[in-house]
Design a protein that fits this description.
About 15% of the residues lie in helices and about 40% in strands. With about 240 residues, the chain is an alpha+beta fold. The strands form 4 sheets. Strands 2-3-7-6-5-8 form a 6-stranded antiparallel beta barrel. A 4-stranded antiparallel β-sheet has the order 9-10-15-14, with helices on one face. The chain has a 3-stranded antiparallel β-sheet with strand order 11-12-13. The N and C termini lie far apart (about 45 Å).
Length: about 240
Amino acid sequence: MSTQTAELFREDGYLRECEAEVLSVAPHADGHAICTDRTVFYPEGGGQPGDSGALIRAGGGEIAITDTRKHEGALLHLCAAQAEETAPPEVGEKVTLKINWERRHRLMRMHSCMHMLCAAIPAPVTGGAIRDGSARIDFNLPDPPDKQELEDELNRLISENHPMRMRWITDQELAAQPDLVRTMSVQPPSGGGRVRLVEFEGADLQPCGGTHVAATGEIGAVRVQSIKSKGKQNRRITVVFAE
């Protein structure tokens, strides 16, 4: 499967719903995988979980979307098995796709927070994961930072309300600027001709395909939950929302 879906969230992470046409429906686990011509649903990737939400049919019926993934080039909305009287949508059917906005916004805030964590710790990144309400980054760092000092610096950067902006560069331009890439184990997606840069002005600039808040003040106060050693020079730093 190699159907191309217009990924509206790449340009605007604040879009909550869109109209779409069903391109394919295939069995998946105990439900179905639905591909559409456009979507606001972010697929799992770059450490950020896939979106959940609902597919709303023209007659008003809803099908719950439990996850969003990419598979063989296609963006798939995963749906659990429906009741017998609720058939999956048909190819060509016009639907509305609506994300679980509250969850998405928390993921946006936490993903943006991880960029501030990178700004606070100028060390190579060896791994990371974002969850609903928490996230962690592993740094190639000989000595662990002071927990309270790091938390204070992180909240200082957040409170400065650095605005976010995005721009695209070519694969060749990225290759000529290897210092833009912070991750050691996973390279940013390239090969498609262009790569998206996410910049929090005056704080952080790096390739990223995830969804982010418009300015760091929207992240809110955070707390450094733990700093753990995961190897000779690997420090795992976990951050949670202060609330």
